[in-house]
Amino acid sequence: MSTLENLPENxxxxxxxxxxxxxxxxxxxxxxxxxxxVRSADTVAQGLAAVAENPPxxxxxxxxxxxxxxxxxxxxxxxxxxxxRVVVLTGYGNIATAVTAVKLGAVDYLAKPADADxxxxxxxxxxxxxxxxxxxPMSADRVRWExxxxxxxxxxxxxxxxxxxxxxxxxxxxxxxxxxxxx
Length: 183
Description:
Layout lengths: L12 E5 L3 H13 L3 E5 L2 H10 L4 E5 L1 E2 L2 E2 L1 H10 L4 E6 L4 H9 L2 E6 L4 H9 L15 H15 L4 H8 L3 H9 L5
Helix pairs in contact: 2-3, 6-7, 7-8
């Protein structure tokens, strides 16, 4: 695994694209502390504009954004700068989108919430070695809770519609939503 210190200053550019502003802000600060020159965007359009203006060496892109699919940013960056290392983040992944992300040029695909160390390990991993698995991966209960929250938000916080789409009883869903997130 290479380290950031081995890279020249002009090769430390990083583009972060995520519509979760709180997560984006935390990740931006963490990556700057680790030596990256960070630019951030919270829409596909801003991400594409940043790539067109000055393609970065590294990128961390959320899969689903408010105005479209983050894979558009991955594809545009790979066209402009084939050597760029891109990690795709998602709160709800599946094998098909992971394969598509890798075909478009991503080097890894991480589940949210990923911490800065997981992201750096994925960005800087060489082709011969795989990054270490996360120290504290999300539990199955947490993954389930995240999925339910995502569907709930996509259904505009409508409990009945969310329950229908998840094939779950409405009262069961209400109890789950009333609890704190599992660890």
